[in-house]
Amino acid sequence: MCAAALLLTLMACGKPAQDLSNDAYVWQRSWQPAVAQALAEGASAVRAWRVLAAEKTAGGRWFDAAPNLEALKAAKRPVIMVFRLDGRIDTLDVDDTFARIAAARDAWRNAGVSVTGVEIDYDCATSKLAAYAAFLTALKGRLNADLDLSITALPTWLTSSELDALLKIPDEAVLQVHAVLNPTQGLFDAKRAQTWLSAFAKHTSRPWRVALPTYGSRVTWDEDGNIAAIESERPALQSGNRASELVATPAAMAAFSDLIHRTRPDGLAGIVWFRLPTMQDERAWSLATWRAVLLRQPLQPALDVSMRPLTGGRTQDLMLSNTGNADSALPFTIRWNGVCRAADGINGYTLERDAEGLYLRRGQDGLLRAGSQRNIGWIRCETPPTAFHVQP
Questions:
Q1: Would you say residue 306 has pLDDT above 60?
Q2: Are residues 193 and 282 in the same domain?
Q3: Is the pLDDT of residue 124 over 50?
């Protein structure tokens, strides 16, 4: 019996840890057909959908997201309704919020959607955490036993003495580690995120998850150097010199996912990916790449540059293509051989010259989706290039 017990113990010690589960935020305000298509194609990679249900502005107005309930039902995954409250709101109304939750819960369930929980997304200052805890306590007391309560949490809360008490109220929390500081510091920093995860684990004994990004943002600066706009769901690479593209690359996020699988902090139950990509979401990854990262499959982008003749003359467009199965960061430089006396770059590329001759240099970060191509410039050559050299 002792030998058998020892054998079982050794087998348990050698058993690999189960992969962290994947949830995904469905954050679209307008549910176009592309959202329903993405839900259908992405469902097999996720445990649950966290769907934006409504938002309350700083001025106290509610806006309903009005998701496609038939599409959610057809996706056959548990759904957590997310109610976003602007962090600038000073007074949280329990009656008003619960009425919204109850109405959405009943409507969604009557439509056949498997609603299992509600999430409150309130990015408030640390000075408001005590009041937020009182709000959550009252709200949880009104929820049915079959509706779990989760909240989003910010790394800035880690310095608050109110955090431990706050995290005892909801059934779970989702730590946001992307785009939480000044945009000049980037969209995601792996070392900083790992530090936050380790610290957060010490503040809660309940299951928790981490939210990781699958998108890019364009930050525009005014003439005084202040942030004028942050765009995350609009067409990429718009014109303008005072702008930066911030990108969470698939390779970087896959590496971080592997890291936290190997060094899993106490209580970490899964990853929540922000956000579900669609064909129309130009700043998010492609759906194929998104699935590959979630399922921890190898990422294999393949960049190639080709020429497309224009009508008449020797001018040709330069086309950057990705024939691989994963999105790729735009290469830093693109060079060519041949005798070319004129060229220019577009869509994030500028023309440069050094001792080796003309070349294109990336001026803005960005992603090239798997299976897609982009016009990055043009060249006019006396002797056409026979090879292009792409430097990451």
A1: yes
A2: yes
A3: yes
| Structural tokens at position 120 | 């409150």
Confirm if 105 and 115 have CB atoms less than 8 A apart.
Answer: yes
Run of H or E residues at 84: strand 79-85
Q: Judging by beta carbons within 10 Å of its beta carbon (0-12, 13-18, 19+), is residue 85 exposed, middle or buried?
A: buried
Instruction: Determine contact, residues 285/388, Cβ cutoff 8 Å.
Output: no
**Domain range for residue 77?**
18-294
Number of compact structural domains in the chain: 2
Interatomic CA distance for residues 158 and 82, integer angstroms:
23
Helix/strand/coil for 2: helix
pLDDT at 224 over 80: no
CB atoms within 10 A of CB 328: 24
Residue 4 lies in a domain: no
d(CA 302, CA 3): 53
d(CA 35, CA 276): 8
**Quick count: other Cβ atoms within 10 Å of Cβ 15?**
8
Q: What tokens does 288 get?
A: 């194929």
Which residues are CB-neighbours of 229 under 8 A, at least 6 positions away? 218, 219, 220
